[in-house]
Design a protein that fits this description.
Pdz3 Domain, hydrolase, EC 3.4.24.-, about 25% strand, PDZ_sf, metalloendopeptidase activity, four-stranded antiparallel β-sheet, metal-binding, alpha+beta, single chain
Length: about 450
């Protein structure tokens, strides 16, 4: 619980700091005086004043932040300093400062995807193992073993891409699925009627709801990863080790091996390492987890990952740029579609998530490794950027809307009208947050 909270605060702090730094950096470049750059609320734990006069503040509760700029509408500003006030800048400069926050979040996501592309992207064959009888896809001609190539025109490289592409199609009447049948080279495109496709993302993933069962990966007895400090690490196991047998049983079925680990009993292992055979003892670490029925159970955890027939693709720094741009654009499209579906009712409000779910997801993704956590961080950063561009008062998008009106009518929106819209925006945001928190605790 403590680690989950700490990780959540770290995640939020990173995203808020990047967002606010975007506002700060562009404001300084536009000649605006920034009086305070603050991360968090409550009592101050760190304060520093730069030569430019900006006060950098870190507060004890890092659940937000702000950049306080000189503004003649709310501050007593001398004639000499008016040129540095935010409200005295051109519409273009003010728009640049306001939009810089969300753009900074998009840039962060791009940089994360750029780094991941260089580290190596593991892709799994997007092959159909089975079409469930009575499902939406049961009336299609997609044969078992087919490799999916695109969903609704969006290219898919792994099942994660398939999930995200399907989320964007919820509420539609039909979608195109492109695939290559097993043993063939020519792609086939089939238009699928999804009018009767009902999916509750809170309870099931869109792939299963559609009737798709992915073809299982071939799990190899060679360890791809051993988590530092885990039971496997303490037993002496290393990445690259080949497990020959456990408790005298030849390892031919990884599922049976995993089931034995879950029981939590000490196991005798025969391991091959660099041509030598080693005998090791593995005592799984018992953890409390939530079962499919919602009940908590004790389960053994070893902290090891088998190799698979997945392909790891690494890109050089230059080619990784395109991968970063492509993945960022893909995720932005998915997030925008999801928000649109929430507004139109195609996607249930039960799918809204608040801080509790975000914290749990951050913890879960981190437990899978740094790359998994970085994917999560990039997704949340993109979501934060897009949410802030929604044209609601109190959000960056609302400020941009006021600037657009000012540009059209030739004068700023009156303080009275802005005040009314701010109140409306505040109520709407509180309602959304209330729904998200309700969903969190309902889960």
């Amino acid at each position: 619980m403590i680690w989950t909270t700490v990780l959540f605060l770290i995640t939020i702090s990173i995203l808020v700091a990047i967002h606010e730094f975007g506002h700060y950096w562009v404001a300084r470049r536009c000649g605006v005086k920034v009086e305070r750059f603050s991360i968090g609320f409550g009592p101050t734990i760190f304060k520093y004043k730069s030569k430019s006069g900006t006060e950098f503040v870190l507060s004890i509760v890092p659940l937000g932040g702000y950049v306080k700029m000189l503004d003649s509408r709310v501050d007593d500003v001398s004639d000499e300093e008016k040129q540095y006030a935010f409200d005295q800048q051109s519409i273009a400069k003010r728009a640049a400062v306001i939009s810089a926050g969300p753009i900074a979040n998009f840039i962060l996501a791009f940089l994360i995807y750029w780094v991941i592309a260089q580290v190596g992207i593991m892709t799994y064959p997007v092959k159909v193992g089975q079409i469930l009888p009575g499902s939406v896809l049961s009336s299609t001609n997609i044969p078992q073993g087919s490799e999916l190539k695109s969903i609704a025109g969006i290219k898919v490289n792994d099942w994660r891409d398939v999930q995200l592409a399907l989320v964007g199609e919820i509420g539609q009447n039909s979608m195109a699925i492109e695939y290559v049948p097993a043993g063939q080279n020519t792609p086939v495109t089939e238009q699928v009627n999804i009018t009767d496709w009902n999916v509750d993302l809170d309870k099931e993933d869109p792939v299963t709801a559609l009737g798709l069962v992915p073809q299982r990966l071939k799990l190899l007895p060679i360890l791809r990863e051993v988590i530092s400090g885990s039971a496997a690490d303490k037993s002496g196991l290393q990445a690259g080790d080949k497990i020959i047998s456990y408790n005298g049983i030849t390892l031919n079925d990884w599922d049976n091996f995993a089931s034995t680990i879950e029981k939590g009993d000490t196991m005798s292992l025969n391991v091959e390492r660099e041509g030598r055979t080693l005998s090791l003892k593995l005592t799984p670490e018992m953890r409390t987890v939530t079962g499919q029925d919602g009940q908590t159970i004790e389960r053994g955890f070893a902290g090891l990952t088998p190799s698979t027939d997945a392909v790891v693709t690494q890109y050089n720094p230059l080619s990784a740029v395109w991968q970063g741009v492509k993945q960022t654009g893909f995720m932005m499209k998915v997030v925008v579609k999801s928000f649109y579906q929430l507004v139109t009712g195609a996607l249930s409000l039960k799918n809204l998530s608040g801080p509790v779910t975000i914290a749990k997801t951050a913890d879960q993704s981190a437990s899978y490794g740094i790359v998994s956590y970085l994917y999560f961080l990039a997704f949340i950063s993109i979501s934060l950027g897009i949410v802030n561009l929604i044209p609601l008062p109190m959000l960056d998008g609302g400020h941009l809307l006021f600037l657009l009106v000012e540009k059209i009518k030739g004068s700023p929106v009156s303080d009275q009208i802005q005040s009314v819209f701010y109140r409306i925006g505040f109520v709407l945001l509180m309602m959304v947050m209330g729904i998200a928190l309700f969903n969190d605790f309902s889960r």
